[in-house]
Every structure is written in structure tokens, then in C-alpha cells.
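Handoff note, outgoing to incoming analyst
You'll be picking up this chain. Sequence as last confirmed:
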Amino acid sequence: MKSIWLKTLSLLSWDAKTLEVHSVDFMVDNTQLGFLVSDHDRSLMVYMYLPEAKESFGGMCLLRWADFHVGAHMNEPLRGSAKSRWWENKHIAWFATLDGGIGLLLPMQEKTYWRLLMLLNVLPHHTGLNLRTFRMLRVDLHTLQNLDGELLNCYLKLAKKISTMSDIILDDLLETDGITAHF
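Most recent structure output, in case you need it:
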């Protein structure tokens, strides 16, 4: 085994808000570097290092790119590369919760994201339960950047309500399922 020596350790960027962190790992999306962070409130956040964005003040601040409520504490995520040639510069982050759940984070194309988000917005809420709000953090930040794949699989017939064909939605879901089929 080869050892690695770090000559210097320097501060890359920071976030102004304090956070009780349980685990951190990298999230790679083509040429963008992100940090996957789980916290004490059973939430998962993705912070991006985007020095060209004006909100980051030249890279001094990390930008919160996505966040959602997992509902359970999690330990260290496992990062692996995607299994498709279209996704060769993207990494999948698998995680297990301390109560036995398994989940993953996968960066996806913006066009696919918006199509699946439209489908998620027209889903009916039975017995007054809103499944989507469970995944949202209890803070007033951007919360529209996550999709629940299991919930979307149940409602392919609603594709007509968002003016698209169910075949396109099914192709998006099958592509995502094929990329993440490691087991």
C-alpha cells in the first residue's frame, strides 16, 4: 500500500453557518466538486465549491446546492463511479442510515430533473399526507433540488398531466435505475 504525504493543509472555502456534522464526503459532478454532509438533525446537504459564482464571493464561501431530510442518522457515505458512458465523470454516493435504510445521491441532467420534478408536483396526496415535504429541511433555503425516485415510480400514468409521454418518464427512471444498479 502506498502512503500519501500532505505537504500543506489549507482552507479551501467555508460556510458562515455553524453545523453539527456527522460525516462528510466528496461529490463529483463532471468538473465540479461538492461536499456531501450529514448533520445531527438527520439531514443531508450538498455544498458546492463554485469559485465562478458571485454568491460564493470568489470561492471563499461554499454554496448549499441541495438539501433534504433523511429521517435517520447516517454514517460515512460510500462513493463510486456511475456505470454508464454518459455518466462517466459523475459519482454516486451510497449511504446507509443507522436504522437500516439505504439511499443514494446521483447528480442528473437538468432536463431530466425538471421533467421528473413536474411529475412529482402533480402527484396526489392521499389522506392529507404530503410525502414530498418530509424530505425537505425545516429551513427557508432552496428545497426544490431533490427527487424521490421510489415515489416517482408509482405514478407513471400521471405523465399525461404534465404534457409528456409516459415512455419518456419511464426512460428517465430506467436510465437512473441502470446507472445505480450495483448490486
